[in-house]
Amino acid sequence: MTANDLRIRGYRDADLPRLTDTFAGWIAQAGSCGYDHVGEVPHRIYENLRGRPVGELVQLWERGGDIIGLAVNGRFGNAFDVFTAPGLRGGAAELTMLRAAADTTAGQTDEGAVLTDVFDADTTRIELLERLGFVRFRTWDHVNERDLGEAVGEPRLPDGFTVRSARLADAEQLAAARNHSFGTTWTGDLYRSAVMTKPGYDPGHEIVVESPDGRIAAFAVCWIDRRNRVGHFEPVGTHRDFQRRGLAGAAMRHAMRWMAGLGLTRVTVSHDAENVAASRLYASLGFRKRYETYGYRRAIDTVRRARSR
C-alpha cells in the first residue's frame, strides 16, 4: 500500500459503532499496546474535545470500505492521537497519518509544540515519531490492569451516601463534580450536549456516589469491550469537598462487580504518572501497572519541514 491508496475524511457521529467494532478487532489481533481500550475512542472524541467540531478535528482513514486509521486532533489544544490498523504499523501509511495529524493539530493551537503519547512497549510508533523529529519529554501515564477473577469487595460508603447510575438530569451535578475534580470548566448544558447525548455514552455506565445533600460526590465512567472481555474506567474523579472518604473506590468496586457479572475477565484504568493519590487508590483496588506511556513533542516550526522528509 502507498499513501495514494489512502482516503481521509472527517468523522461523523454515525461512524462510531463501526469504528469501535473495528478498534475491538485491532485489539483482538494485536493486543492493547498502542490501542488501549475501545472506550477511549468515544471518550477522546467527545469528552476530550468538549463540544469542538469533531468533523474537523477527528479524521478517519479508509481503504475501500474498511477503516484503517483514526486521528483525534487538538486534544487539550495541542495533542493528537493516531491509531492504525495492525497490518499497516511501521510503514508508509502510518507515517502519513502521523504527519497529517501533527500538521492538523499545529493549525489548531497557539502553543509552541504539538504533543502525542506512546506506549513504552510500542517500539514501532516510537521509531516513527523519532524519525519525524519528535522527542520524548516525560513519562505520561501508568496503564493499570486488574483480573476480575479476583474477588472484589463490597463497596462501603459513609452513612447517608448512596451509589447509583447516572441520569441525564444529573448533567449539572456531573459537570460540577468534574470541575472540582480536574479544574475544568464544564457547564451542565455543555456536558449534556457534548457527552451525555452523544453516541457511545450510556448514563447507566456512569457510576456516581450521591451525598446526603444530593450532590454528586464521586463518579466513575465504565466502558465495555465485550469482544475482548475487558472493562475500562475513564474518567474517575471525586469532588474536592468529598475527597479522602473512599468514595471513588466504592464506585469502582460497584462497577467491577457488575463487570464481572457481564463475563468480563479484566479491567483497566490509567492515571497521570505524577498522581500519587490515584496510584494509591488503584493499587488498593488490586490494579497493577502493565505499561507506561511516554509523552513526545515537536516544536511547531519543524512540523511543516518534516513533511518533506
Alpha-carbon distance between the two ends: 19 Å
**Pairing-aware structural class of the strands and helices?**
alpha+beta
Q: Portion of residues in helices?
A: 25-40%
Kindly provide the radius of gyration, computed on alpha-carbon positions and rounded to a whole number of angstroms.
19 Å
- Listing every helix as H and every strand as E from the N terminus to the C terminus, the arrangement reads EHHHEEEHEHEEHHEEEHEHEH
Described by strand count, sense and barrel closure, the largest sheet is: 8 strands, mixed
The oligomeric state is: single chain
Look at the structure and name the CATH superfamily of the largest domain. Gcn5-related N-acetyltransferase (GNAT)
GO molecular function, one term: acyltransferase activity, transferring groups other than amino-acyl groups
InterPro entries: Acyl_CoA_acyltransferase (IPR016181), GNAT_dom (IPR000182), YpeA/RimI_acetyltransf (IPR050680)
Protein name: N-acetyltransferase domain-containing protein
Domain N-acetyltransferase: 161-307
Task: Write up what this structure looks like.
The protein has 309 residues and is an alpha+beta fold. The chain has 2 domains: 3-142 and 293-306, Aminopeptidase; 149-264, Aminopeptidase. It contains 10 helices and 12 strands. The strands form 2 sheets. Strands 5-12-6-11-10-9-8-7 form an 8-stranded mixed β-sheet, with helices on both faces. A 4-stranded antiparallel β-sheet has the order 1-2-3-4, sandwiched between helices. Helix 6 (171-182) crosses helix 7 (188-196). 45% of the residues are buried. The model has no long low-confidence stretch (mean pLDDT 95). Residues 161-307 form the N-acetyltransferase domain. GO terms for molecular function: acyltransferase activity, transferring groups other than amino-acyl groups. It comes from Polymorphospora rubra.
